[in-house]
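Hi U.,

Before I forget, here's the chain from the pilot set. I'm dumping it here mostly so it's searchable later in email.
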Amino acid sequence: MPSGQESIFPEYETETSQTSKLLRKFKEMPFVPIGMAGFAVLVGYGLYKLKHRGDMKMSLHLIHVRVAAQGFVVGALTCGVLYSMFRERVLKPKE
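Structure:
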């Protein structure tokens, strides 16, 4: 890009790697990656248990897995919001 032109999206053209972006996001809001990881673990566990579900109907098993995964993500996001409110209100230095 010529030096005379300004970038339209400067945040996408920085020399940062995906790992550094993920670490920065984890420091800003630590419960979002925890929620994503918990969702992936619960879905993986649900797929594993799909083979050993016994006489339970598949649709009922999939509904239980979906509800558990969504519950974990909502819980993690709620904890993240409460943590950020606590950090802003209680731990923020007085101005």
